[in-house]
Amino acid sequence: MIPGTNPVFITDCYSGDGLKYKKGENDIISELVIIDRFLFKKETRYGNIWRNILRFILIPIQIIKLKRVLSSMPNVFLITHSVYYGFLASLINVKYSSTPQGSEVLVRPQQSLMYRFFLKRAVKHAAFVTVDSKAMADKLMQTTGVDAYVIQNGIDIEKCNNDKLNESEERNLVISIRGIAKNYRIDEIVNARNNTLPNLKLGFCWPSQETSYYKKVIAKTKGSDDFYGQLQRNKLFSILKTTLCVVSIPISDSSPRSVYEAIFCGCAVLATKNDYMKSLPKCMRDRIVVVDLDNPLWLKNGLESAKEITKNKYIPSNIAIREYSQYESMRKVYEIVMSIST
């Protein structure tokens, strides 16, 4: 999408969150030590701890592998996603950018001094840092003293395009598309349905799950509910294009890509109040119903508002397309890289 670019992908893992990587026709991939076969088959709290321990143990070997990979690439610039890859890049003589993920800035540094050290090293040695929300940028400055560009991770707007929706097809699905984990409060969604709308059919798909929490949630669901499991993006978009509303009420959120995908697919979104909403263009903000979980009727009332919202087709504004397209986001990063490299 950016003329003259053909990036090389460097990784230590192909099947994160249980989803298998599907190689693109033109993808060029270089491998570090691949850890997939050493990971738990299902995501659990202990599985996440083990993955972090394994990656920590492998740091010296991964550094050697990374140097070998880069030795054949003159004038290389690394764009690192997640603190781990930024930390690896900081230990070798290479220019790189760092893009930590939401919880890596907002949650984990407050829980672990070691993780705070990893974060500080990853961002302080970077040529520049990007984050996907002002809340993250403010917290990163507070924690590390490093200023960051706010650039959305972006979504595939073309595939989300709801012009392809059959208008005779009624939107009637109510689904959760966040991880089945404590942070995303899926249990509260099920409880609200059971208490106030017992005949409402819910749908669930998820990029990841915590096994013990998943069992707790499943025990409260009904036989009529749909469980889509982990979905590739095309299948997810197909479902969203016939969805009335997506429910997204996490405890902590930075800039939720899944919420933006739902909006561009034409859904309404029930969400708890969050700072990211302040930065949204009006056309996107108008598709969100802010709910108060202290109100026992939050789900029932929210769905009534969602029905009104989805009577009107979502038409993205120019600013929404410019700020939330993954291609435009990548172009912004590329322009910063070029300004540094020239």
Task: Describe this entry's structure for a reader.
This protein has 342 residues and is α/β, with parallel strands linked by helices. It has 2 domains: 8-153 and 325-341, Glycogen Phosphorylase B (Rossmann fold, 3-Layer(aba) Sandwich), CATH 3.40.50; 157-322, Glycogen Phosphorylase B (Rossmann fold, 3-Layer(aba) Sandwich), CATH 3.40.50.2000. The protein contains 16 helices and 12 strands. The protein has helices spanning 45-57, 59-70, 83-90, 102-106, 108-111, 113-124, 134-144, 157-160, 186-196, 211-218, 233-240, 257-264, 282-285, 298-309, 318-324, 326-341; strands at 8-11, 28-31, 77-81, 95-99, 128-131, 149-150, 173-176, 203-205, 226-229, 243-248, 268-272, 288-291. Strands 9-8-7-10-11-12 form a 6-stranded parallel sheet, sandwiched between helices. Strands 3-4-5-6 form a 4-stranded parallel sheet, sandwiched between helices. Strands 1-2 form a two-stranded parallel sheet. Helix 3 packs across helix 6 (113-124). The longest helix is centred in the last third of the chain and has 16 residues, at 326-341. The protein is globular. The model has no long low-confidence stretch (mean pLDDT 90).
